[in-house]
Amino acid sequence: MTARGHLPQLENPGLLAVGPATHKEHAMPPTLALHKAALDHIGPQLAALNLNLKVITFDGSGEFEIEGARVPAAEVSIDYLWFSRHINSDGNAAGAFEMALSCRHVGVLQTFNAGLDDPFYATIAARGTRICNSSAQAVAISEYVFGQVLNRFQPLATQRQLQAAREWRNTPFREIWRTRWLIVGYGPIGQALAQRLRAFDATVDVVRRSDAPVEPAARVGTADDLPRFLPDADVVVLACPLTAATRGMANDAFFAAVKKDAILVNIARGGLVEAAALTAALDSGRLGHAILDVFEPEPLAEDHAFWVHPGITVTAHTSFAGNGGPARWDQLFLENISRFAAGAALGQEVDPRIFSGG
């Protein structure tokens, strides 16, 4: 996508790579707004695309920098706003959300978030802003799921103990081969997981909004099919959005239907799982183990019972933190801003009806 070596440098925000206008809807160059740290990071690659854009920046102050001047958000109209991972760098993502809502207009918002359950996204979508979420986390999260489940299937801790004791003893383990997995939610994360499961010769069932067949799933159903699919699943992975319909979906009825000793993995949102129902299922021996990377609220309180429950693995919303994530976030942005400048369809654009349960 970009040439290596000598790339054009951006000294200050302003007109970028001025050339013939390519965006069909603008007589003037469309305005791209991004965090100052993001421009410092990706500016050379952006310039190498030779797009006709007016680039402005923001930071944690709630104001924009436009041609050297500080301008309040209320005076700014933006054609394309990129919320990169850098909006968390100053610990003020909420401030960035407020800033966006204060703008006169935001045409497109591309965010580093995969989940859009924060009320901000529904609010800005209701104003007509097109939203593109991120699939960059899918690789890391799918590998996290594999790592955690393999850690349950294989006696790694026992093997380390035997090594420390210099004891030569065979340690049988469970294989993923021919296990059955139920993936609830089939966006980029669910798809990445299913692709990897196929390589392990596991069987995959999928629950999503449509029951139309998808590869490589053996069965596809909707939420109504959960009672039919759950009793067969060795591993259940929650990878769906948190909505009014999915909140608390892992409840007493859900756990009553699961296969005995199944593993539950939640890498989506904490609000999908009813804590009391989960604890009861583990304590009764119905559920074998729960691997939880997300909670409600976060961070998980220091005195929360999940920390010490023997049937729960707790990680600190870290499943996305693979080393390749930043490069994939950047790649998505560069591809999408190129599409936008050309007037083409955008990648990862979400249907606004998701915010109203449509």
Helices and strands in order:
Elements: E1 15-16, E2 31-35, H1 36-48, E3 53-58, E4 63-66, E5 69-72, E6 77-83, H2 93-102, E7 105-111, H3 119-126, E8 130-132, H4 138-153, H5 156-164, E9 180-184, H6 188-199, E10 203-207, E11 219-221, H7 226-229, E12 235-238, H8 252-257, E13 262-266, H9 275-283, E14 287-292, E15 312-314, H10 325-341
Parallel strand pairs: 2-3, 2-6, 6-7, 7-8, 9-10, 9-12, 10-11, 12-13, 13-14, 14-15
Antiparallel strand pairs: 1-3, 3-4, 4-5
Helix pairs in contact: 4-6
Overall description:
- The structure is a single chain.
- This protein is of the alpha/beta class.
- The chain has two domains: 15-136 and 324-356, Rossmann fold (3-Layer(aba) Sandwich); 138-314, 3-Layer(aba) Sandwich (Rossmann fold).
- It has ten helices and 15 strands.
- The protein has helices at residues 36-48, 93-102, 119-126, 138-153, 156-164, 188-199, 226-229, 252-257, 275-283, 325-341, and strands at residues 15-16, 31-35, 53-58, 63-66, 69-72, 77-83, 105-111, 130-132, 180-184, 203-207, 219-221, 235-238, 262-266, 287-292, 312-314.
- Strands 1, 2, 3, 4, 5, 6, 7 and 8 form an eight-stranded mixed β-sheet that branches. A seven-stranded parallel β-sheet has the order 11-10-9-12-13-14-15.
- α4 packs across α6.
- The longest helix has 17 residues, at 325-341.
- The relative contact order is 0.12.
